[in-house]
Amino acid sequence: MDEKRLLEVKDLKVHFFTDDGVVKAVDGVSFHVNRGETLAVVGESGSGKSVTSLAIMRLIPSPPGRIVGGEILFRGKDGKVRDLTKLSEQEMRRIRGNDIAMIFQEPMTSLNPVYTVGDQIAEAIMLHQGKSRKEAMELAAHMLELVGIPEPRKRLSNYPHQMSGGMRQRVMIAMALSCNPSLLIADEPTTALDVTIQAQILELMKKLQEELGMAILFITHNLGVVAEMADRVVVMYAGRVVEQADVVPLFQEPLHPYTRGLLRSVPRLDLAAERKERLEAIPGNVPNPLYLPPGCAFHPRCKHFVAGLCDAEVPPLEDAGDGRQVRCVRWREIREVRA
Amino acid sequence: MNGVLLEVKDLKKHFPIRGGVLSRVVGSVKAVDGVSFSIRKGEVLGLVGESGSGKTTVGRTVLRLIEPTGGRILFDGQDITELPREKLRPFRRRMQIIFQDPFSSLNPRMTVGDIIAEPLLIHGIGKTPKERTERVAELLKLVGLSPDHMRRYPHEFSGGQRQRIGIARALAVAPEFIVADEPVSALDVSIQAQVVNLLQDLKEELGLTLLFIAHDLAVVEYISDRVAVMYLGKVMELAPARELYRNPKHPYTEALLSAVPIPDPTVKRERIVLQGDIPSPINPPSGCVFRTRCRYALPECAQVVPELKEVAPGHYKACIRDDIL
């Protein structure tokens, strides 16, 4: 693995074996995360973005789910590269929290309601760093201060229900960062929050990344948040990567019709003056993962669809220059027509 | 200019908090605390605010789905604030609601046809089953679904399609006024635009008047003629949509707009990050409720509750400071 790389996911396949059939939630996904950078994974429901992040943490509920193929290469703090799919549960437990930490969308359900927040942060520190309870509590207070919670020492004895949503997400971040991980996976961390609180949490994450230098794998559906946070972007649709690029080129010239459609369908406050009469919606529905369309999964909703071409086989993920990748058989033609 | 369809004057909704063995009232949540606005026929009024601002309570109170504590609600010139149930029914037919969650707002045991026909039965529209079926088919086509969908159940549909079913149900009785309470928040990004476009088309086609409640400022700006911004049960600012977004006069609106992430990585701007959380509506700050998070606050802001006053034609704000923004 390249020296710069912290994580490399190669041809990952995660399938769910349900009574109704096999759901190929993640079907051959590849991407990498460099040290200290922020990679955003964007997608709608059923795109496989959350399942991908759970697979990296080896937290896929099994049964019905299983990693059925691919590799997840991760460079540990000790410099060794391991394939996370091959680790035992015990080895994996050392990676979780220590090397890779995760925060979730709903900070209420991911905190234990019957323990104080101090106990919960200290537990992780004692477990991973072998510190005494007193030392761990000291560090927990320091972490709360770091994430901008006023009166951190007093807050240690608070229960989660005594805090607001924004405060709870700060606690989750404090807990996740308490063991100084090199990768933070954030799965829709601001989706449940109000916009003024979301702004606080995004600012906090940027500040902490500057100070602590961890890489962030940011899972979201919000394109505004992507533009604000990401260095690079992976766009997923129906279990596959459809486009991958640095953040500026992706927003300036999206190559995949789905990416382009997504960007055009959101109303924008900053363009209110030049707005059109109607939003450019993507027609149709997000496909049912049990019955994915043949060929390119986006073809039934795509205005560039050509029968016999797009529905024949799954298009390969092609290199499009400048480190970009796109999964569309017609991307060159479409780009020329636009130019 | 068209006439006013809905007028709300000094609307209040306080939810009692009970405590102790005797469940005595020990306090109250001032969910809505003195809200006034009017909506003209054919107009879309957007209502934005964060959680706890009272926007949903306003929507339900104007329909009398919950009873107001104080104030007046006038629909088409008639005071409906204290109308008894039977007298309210003819008005109910003229006003409907669309809910946020297309999963919990449709009965899973009823077919789509029965769901849409239910309001017809309640209001005695369509005498025979055949007439009702025809009306349901017509409604399904109107919202972009197929009459064949009538015999299916809600679980067979995606989120966007379910929201269309909810819209068809609201339109069944041919209402004049619709409260749309976060109608696109639960939908995928690529589906939101479809539903926003549908609402806009229906509004044009049927001449609907809408109260559009949402926390997504961009969506509200897009669909609304005028927008009211709420915070802790009060209206902070009310103005024509573009004017409000281009030229916010209230410090809260200013901060709210600057908090929205713009989907363009090349746009760099100064962001106003509000400190702290929204205070509890049980014990709101004295004077201006926003002053605890306001960067322009003066000692006087704690003394008086600012009136919503006109600062430019059609542009109202509730703030004592005229020297800012």
What does this 3D model show about the protein?
- Chain B: It comes from Thermus composti.
- Chain B: Belongs to the ABC transporter superfamily.
- Chain B: This is ABC transporter ATP-binding protein.
- The complex is a heterodimer of chains A (339) and B (325).
- With 339 residues, chain A is α/β, with parallel strands linked by helices.
- Chain A is 32% helix and 23% strand.
- In chain A, strands 6-7-8-3-9-10-12-11 form an eight-stranded mixed β-sheet, with helices on both faces.
- The two termini of chain A are 37 Å apart.
- The mean pLDDT of chain A is 92.
- Chain B is of the alpha/beta class and 325 residues long.
- Chain B has one domain (4-94, 175-317): 3-Layer(aba) Sandwich (Rossmann fold), CATH 3.40.50.
- Chain B is built from nine helices and twelve strands.
- Chain B has helices spanning 55-62, 85-94, 112-122, 129-142, 159-171, 189-206, 217-223, 241-246, 251-259, and strands at 4-19, 24-40, 44-48, 70-75, 78-79, 95-98, 177-181, 209-214, 226-231, 234-240, 309-312, 315-317.
- In chain B, the strands form two sheets. Chain B has an eight-stranded mixed β-sheet with strand order 6-7-8-3-9-10-12-11, with helices on both faces.
- The longest helix of chain B has 18 residues, at 189-206.
- The mean pLDDT of chain B is 92.
- The chains are: A alpha/beta (339), B alpha/beta (325).
- At the A-B interface, helix 7, helix 8, helix 9 and helix 10 of A face helix 5, helix 6, helix 7, helix 8 and helix 9 of B.
